[in-house]
Design goal:
The chain is of the alpha+beta class and 170 residues long. Helices cover 17% and strands 28% of the residues.
């Protein structure tokens, strides 16, 4: 009996478009799934100038994006490379069979700016619901001691993003 992969039943229903939210296999660790927003499609030019995204030389209207840091890192400054490409990137042209994706939390997102273009065959589907949301500290995954576990437990209520729970995202 033939088996139809889940992604082949989800993705063909609607063509991927700019600003869609997608679930995909993380290119640096294919065992992990990531969720990001499509910023540019194959053949499109992407550039970021002072935190503003341009696709094909036009500013991309993005009501959903969030910046937690007002500072803009310039290419000519004395900053780490990762800081500079966060705010000023490209221009690059998305190759055939790929997408350029970014997280909505622009100042704290591991996305195409850092690991490159997303191959289309890594797509798994589209999310439709946020069933739980928690604001973890950036280095929380490094903290695994007993004291850290107690802190996490007691911060559950203050760090849970209650307004996002059960929010429809498609």
């Amino acid at each position: 009996r033939p088996v139809i992969p889940l992604e082949s039943t989800i993705l063909p229903c609607k063509k991927i478009e700019r600003k869609d939210i997608v679930v995909f296999k993380f290119p640096r660790d294919l065992k992990k799934d990531y969720v990001k927003r499509v910023i540019a499609l194959e053949g499109e030019k992407v550039e970021i100038k002072d935190k503003e995204v341009y696709v094909n030389d036009r500013p991309l209207e993005e009501k959903y994006k969030v910046h937690i840091d007002a500072q803009v890192f310039q290419k000519n400054g004395y900053y780490q490379y990762d800081d500079v490409i966060r705010d000023n990137f490209g221009p690059v042209v998305v190759p055939p069979g790929h997408l350029f994706v970014m997280g909505d939390n622009r100042d704290n997102s591991l996305d195409s700016r850092y690991w490159g273009f997303l191959p289309m065959n890594y797509l798994k589907g589209r999310p439709w619901l946020i069933y739980f949301s928690y604001e973890a500290e950036r280095d929380a995954y490094l903290k695994n001691g007993v004291q850290d576990k107690f802190k996490k437990f007691f911060r559950f209520f203050s760090k849970t993003r209650w307004s996002r729970i059960m929010k429809v995202v498609f």
